[in-house]
Amino acid sequence: MAQASTDDFPPPALSPGRGRAKIWIDLENTPHIPFFRPILRELEGRGYSVVLTAREAFQTCEMANRFGLRYTKIGRHYGKNKGMKALGLVIRALQLIPFILRERPALGLNHGSRAQILACNILRIPTVLIMDYEHASTPPLVRPQWEIIPEAIPEDKRHCTDRHRVRKFSGIKEDVYVPDFQPDPSIVEELQLHGRIVVTVRPPATEAHYHNPEAELLFSAFMKRVCAAEGVKAILLPRNKAQREAITAEFPEWFASGRVVIPSSVVDGLNLLWHSDLAVSAGGTMNREAAALGVPAFSIFRGPMGAVDQALVSQGRLVMVGSVDEVHNKIPLVPRKRDGSTGAKGNRSLDDIISHLTSILPLQEAWR
Q1: Residues 170 and 191 grouped into a single domain
Q2: pLDDT tier at 135 (50, 70, 90 boundaries)?
Q3: Bridge partners of 279?
Q4: Which of 108, 210, 250, 353 could bond 120 through an S-S bridge, CB–CB 3.0 to 4.6 Å?
Q5: Residues 6 or more apart from 36 whose CB is under 8 A from it?
Q6: How far apart are CA 136 and CA 294, in angstroms?
Q7: pLDDT-derived band at 208, boundaries 50, 70, 90
Q8: Which residue has the higher pLDDT, 10 or 344?
């Protein structure tokens, strides 16, 4: 692939007739779809042109298709091997460069896309990283120019180098899109949830750099408990096809009785959670979605705890489970009380993020 010259890079594109800059959003993981949908809507409503790319990983493209997003599919996931991860990062960054040269965005926006940041840094395009987990590694070449983080995260835990380019938003990332949620009862029939205590379960992210094998022990212990409990049904959401195949091959007994089901196609996670009695996850997003909806949430994540999860624990909206004994003693398999509420109301979190984004572009031009 020919190397792009930053000297020949054309000026950023403007939205036709409106004088607004073009913003590029890169989607690398499934939770990015519901998160960026309201942001996309608000930016376009203010006259910005927005273009999307998506990586073939963790059902990201399937979810984007489900919600009718128009995107360009570029790159894939390269597995859990650290060497392949680094190689995959470079490959995808290079694959993104022709898209950048064609679309000429004024700003790259992401929620943890190292490939977008690396490609933009090569071509000297400003990037905004929205991030809610301060322990993610950020090598020098993939540091963003700007960062937007929840208020719960201290400023000294930022990923960009300049504290003056850090902005904060109220609430948590999930508060950005939960207010738009409307329950769809068709999922009850689709997944045969009638008359059961329903638990939504997310396995550990075994391919993530922060994965701790202890989470796999807790996950296995909880699934065995579910299979031994009467009147309980678990909806298991593997992170990708490889994990699905590995789990079904290693634990066929979980699925023999029908008490554990893996949906045959991608499902709306918020809708499934709202129709569940509790959620147990070895990762952050699903538990925080449950907390935002008012669904009891239990975390078997064993990596470094982030400030957002610490805040949810202190508020009584999330329970951390750290041992096999706690799997049996801290997770009640009981129906939850339902009041018809879908969780957070109002959208200050979204308003904060949009306000920061619309102020960053002119500031970027002034700081150049």
Answers
A1: no
A2: confident
A3: 200, 297
A4: 108
A5: 25, 27, 52, 111
A6: 27
A7: low
A8: 344
127: which strand partners?
108
| Number of compact structural domains in the chain | 2
Helix (H, G, I), strand (E, B) or coil at 192: coil
User: From CA 252, how far away is CA 5, in angstroms rounded?
Assistant: 54
Token readout for 4 is: 């792009």
Contact 326, 311 (CB under 8 A): no
Residue 301: name the closest of 293, 292, 310 by CA.
310
**Mean pLDDT value of segment 186-215:** 86
Distance (Å) of CA 184 to CA 214, 253, 266, 269, 361: 35, 31, 15, 11, 38
| Residue 181 neighbours by CB distance under 10 Å | 20
Q: Using pLDDT thresholds of 50, 70 and 90, give the confidence band for residue 92.
A: very high
**Residue 279's domain spans which residues?**
185-329
Please name the residue ranges forming H helices in 205-268: 214-228, 241-250, 253-256
* Token duo for residue 259: 């008490």
Whose CA is closest to 197, among 331, 339, 342, 323?
A: 331
Structure tokens given for 141 = 């070449």
Token pair for residue 13? 């594109």
CATH code, domain carrying 64: 3.40.50.2000
Give the list of residues 6+ apart from residue 5 with CB closer than 8 angstroms, or none: none
Residue 170 lies in a domain: yes
What separation, in Å, do the N-terminal and C-terminal C-alpha atoms of the chain show?
29
Determine how many CB atoms are found less than 10 A away from the CB of residue 225.
Answer: 16
Closest-CA residue to 191 (of 178, 200, 182, 183): 200
Q: Report DSSP state, residue 200.
A: E
Which residues contact residue 143 at a Cβ distance below 8 angstroms, ignoring those fewer than 6 apart? 117, 121, 159, 160, 161
> Could you give the CA distance from residue 197 to residue 296 in angstroms, rounded to a whole number?
13
Q: Does the pLDDT of residue 293 top 60, yes or no?
A: yes
**Which H or E element spans position 127?**
strand 127-130
Q: What's the pLDDT at 4?
A: 38
